[in-house]
Design brief:
Strand order of the largest sheet: 1-6-5-4
Largest sheet: 4 strands, mixed
Order of helices and strands: HHEHHEEEEEH
Number of strands: 6
Shape: extended
């Protein structure tokens, strides 16, 4: 019980233990304050929907290995950025802004990667005035069924948060499906 802990602390010479609501506030730095203000604005501005799809990273890993063998310093993020850029040309409304209920092509699009931290699913918050953000999760060897057989493949979840005022379920799902298709078949980047 709380009273027992306080009594034990006092008898051990620790003195009075402050209540949690008595701790002095710590002022966060200006960057954290700016991020907090932007995220709160986004939360109140964009009615977001999150779409998640698994992607088989076998081809992406092979592409990276081939490029590295040729001396290119390419990360998985570089490949995902290239694929997203290609998909955005096919879905221009994903790369727009929506000020005053008007659609303006030429916004921007964010990719955020928490895979290095082992995160397998998350719900990224849209950076205003953008309409979508792609969350990249951890890659892990996973049993999957291919051609009726259980095989181990490097799998990763992609989580797309989209502003439902502009990006409805069909568009969000189609965009995410296209990103996965390009990652699983990087030769399609040439078409």
């Amino acid at each position: 019980m709380k009273a027992d802990v306080l009594a034990a602390a006092e008898s051990a010479g620790v003195g009075r233990v402050p209540e949690s609501n008595e701790l002095p506030p710590v002022r966060v730095n200006s960057l954290r304050r700016s991020i907090a203000a932007n995220m709160l604005n986004s939360w109140h501005t964009s009615p977001r929907v999150v779409y998640t799809m698994p992607v088989d990273c076998t081809a992406m890993k092979a592409l990276r290995a081939q490029l590295k063998a040729r001396g290119a310093a390419v990360s998985y993020n570089h490949i995902i950025m290239k694929v997203a850029a290609k998909a955005l040309t096919e879905f221009p409304d994903m790369n727009a802004r929506f000020p005053d209920n008007s659609l303006i092509t030429g916004g921007t699009f964010t990719i955020t990667n928490l895979g290095n931290y082992g995160v397998t699913y998350f719900s990224p918050i849209i950076n205003q005035p953008e309409l979508a953000i792609l969350g990249v999760c951890a890659m892990a060897d996973t049993p999957v069924v291919r051609d009726g057989e259980v095989v181990i493949r490097p799998m990763m979840n992609l989580c797309l948060s989209a502003d439902h005022r502009v990006i409805d379920g069909v568009m969000g799902a189609a965009f995410l499906k296209r990103v996965c298709e390009l990652l699983e078949n990087p030769c399609l980047l040439l078409l």
